[in-house]
Design a protein that fits this description.
The structure holds two protein chains of two kinds. By secondary structure, chain A is mostly beta strands. In chain A, the strands form two sheets. In chain A, strands 2, 4, 5, 6, 9, 10 and 11 form a seven-stranded mixed β-sheet that branches. The radius of gyration of chain A is 13 Å and the shape is globular. Chain B has no helices and eleven strands. In chain B, a hairpin with a 1-residue loop joins strand 9 and strand 10. The relative contact order of chain B is 0.31. The chains are: A mainly beta, B mainly beta. Chains A and B meet through strand 4, strand 5 and strand 10 of A and strand 5, strand 9 and strand 10 of B.
Amino acid sequence: DIQMTQSPSSLSASVGDRVTITCRASQSISSYLNWYQQKPGKAPKLLIYAASSLQSGVPSRFSGSGSGTDFTLTISSLQPEDFASYYCQQSFSTPMYTFGQGTKLEIK
Amino acid sequence: EVQLEESGGGLVQPGGSLRLSCAASGFILTTYWMSWVRQAPGRGLEWVANIKHDGSETFYLDSVKGRFTISRDNAKDSLYLQMNNLRAEDTAVYYCARDWWSLHWSFDLWGRGTLVTVSS
């Protein structure tokens, strides 16, 4: 099974900060990596697919990069509505998938 | 409006059964693979099962294999998850999600989820 490890598990930042979250796969997954945002009590929302493609309607301050085993999600300038949890998910082993454990982004 | 809506969650004793439903609207269900994804209280997301658009293939997380069955009725725009022999560790919010292909697979549409609590 492919394991996905995110770091950090939690992060405190301020509005306007640039933030980077990392996701590492236990084996190469090419560019088959997606990122989701989840707010408390809500369903996850797709932000980035195929490592670097921005989902329709998602603000351009979100970006993704990486390939192989190492990936990053970057928020260029944090907005108040960005404080949430973020999850990476691999689709290399389709049709069976695994998620990272999540990163909780909190207000400093 | 394009949406998914789950129902059928509740409190069940260990060893019991529950059937979850997911109603799709605003899109043609028959053209999509569909998945169930769960989230235990305070924990991360875990893919549980998925089903091909015509129901001919199904796949499961190892820990639910033999206990859970995913199915669909495209004529009723509905997805189901039959859960048998439930365990405390199955306690979670269960989401139905649409498998979406663009460059590769992701989940582009999610329901609000339904809570399953397994406890005596």
